[in-house]
Amino acid sequence: MPPAPIVFKTSHRIRFSDLDLYGHMSTGRYGTYYVDHRMEGLRAHIGWDLKTLGDLPFMVWVRRLEIDFIRPVHADHDVTITSFVRDFHGPDAAIECLMADATGKELSRCLMTVAFVDKATRRAKDWPPEVAALFFEKPAS
Asked: Which DSSP symbol is given to 47?
């Protein structure tokens, strides 16, 4: 059985500045929340804060965000975002994300594609197995 992915989880309260004229969260803010969520998870679960990311010999680059808008999100909504790496295909990591309200109802879903980029060549390359393994639970010994 393959190891279980590490699930990142963050909580957020939607602010006034996140809203559009209709009182819903602006479309572009969803992407910001999902990317910030992953960055918080990298710090909390992998130990990659911004300084560490700057010192690594590679970069992680959000190549694509595919967001499904399911229900509107309003001001002062408390939301939880969860995500995990579903799989790796060459230089791309497919990350499934979910935004839910306090009762667990889905508000939106996101498929995020993150590329592994070598800093020396500035080219995407396959995720090294030892780096990819950081995103999965360690097998019990």
From this structure: -
Total residues belonging to the chain: 141
DSSP state of 137: P
Beta bridge partners of 84: 96
Helix ranges, the chain (H): 27-41, 50-55, 129-132
What residue ranges do the domains of the chain occupy?
Answer: 8-134
Residues 6+ apart with CB under 8 A from 98: 81, 82, 83, 106, 108, 109, 110
Indicate the fold that domain 8-134 takes in CATH.
Thiol Ester Dehydrase; Chain A (3.10.129)
Instruction: State how far Cα 32 lies from the chain centre.
Output: 10
Name the pTM for this structure.
0.94
Per residue in 82-95, pLDDT tens?
Answer: 999 999 999 999 99
